[in-house]
Amino acid sequence: MEKDEIIHTDPRGGVQVVSRTAAIMRALSANPGGLSLTAIANEVNLPRSTVQRLVSALEIEGLVDAKGPSGGTRLGPTISSLLATAHADMLVFGRHQLKMLLDTVQETCSIITAVNASSMVLETMTAEHPLRVVVSQGSQAPLHTTAGGKALLSAYDDELIEQLLDKPLQALTPHTPTSRRALFADIKRVRKDGISISRNEFCLGLSSIATAVETRMGVYAFEVALPDARFESQAADIQRALKAHRETVLEGASGFIKDRQAGTLGLKP
Asked: Three-state SS across the chain?
């Protein structure tokens, strides 16, 4: 008997498993602190037994950690490895840039990229404050809810944004923008000013400020996240720092690419 005759699967079943697995991964991305199996089941509308079976398979591959610090399930270490591979150049170049920004603003700083209609944290550095924002690498949020997401949207044309945001805008808090007209007006302002702002739009009590950089490595956003209680006193300084940082990053990225290309050719940078 031929090998193709021995191995037979129902393609519909395979698609269903992938869809359910993706739903679990998205739920965990939106909850970086971790979720219990029951909470995951409620989030993705699946039986707890199904969730347990899929989570066990994901844990074997390192895609989830079923023994997080709070006892729940969270994204696993393999996610970080996948991120590093896909955005290796920016991570190598950006970590030093991120540290410089952290030293300047003294608030939690992150490098953000876009994955479909979500923003995703590639790298993050946490400020040392008694009250501070802690961001998890690999965590995701709808693009319209965070400063980093809106900064990324400002780098795309309106037609592409319409394709990305083809569904009704999800409200995560009472402050989340759900009007497409208002969102596009905000994006237009971001294109002019170079700075995006989110206040209590992703999570109550959390604000963020960001700027986008378009490099040969891709489009990324540098985001500063802080408790909303400090926003009024810190916002102006952070915006000035981000504008200056953006120019530094753009200048440095050009030199980084040239040096990397010379290195791959065995030439002295």
From this structure: CCHHHHCCCCHHHHHHHHHHHHHHHHHHHCCCCCECHHHHHHHHCCCHHHHHHHHHHHHHCCCEECCCCCCCEEECHHHHHHHHHHCHHHHHHHHHHHHHHHHHHCCEEEEEEEECCEEEEEEEECCCCCCCCCCCCCCEEEHHHCHHHHHHHHCCCHHHHHHHCCCCCCCCCCCCCCCHHHHHHHHHHHHHHCCEEEECCCCCCEEEEEEEEEECCEEEEEEEEEEHHHHHHHHHHHHHHHHHHHHHHHHHHHHHHHHHHHHHCCCCC
Query: When comparing pLDDT for 194 and 66, which is higher?
Result: 194
pLDDT above 90: residue 14: no
Structural domain of 35: 3-78
**pLDDT at position 190 over 70:** yes
The CATH number assigned to the domain holding 47 equals 1.10.10.10
Per the CB < 8 A criterion, the answer to whether 153 and 169 are in contact is no
Q: Tell me the pLDDT tens digit for each residue of 198-226.
A: 999 999 999 999 999 888 778 899 999 99
What is the share, in percent, of the chain residues with pLDDT greater than 90?
A: 39
For residues 163 and 43, state if they share a domain.
Answer: no
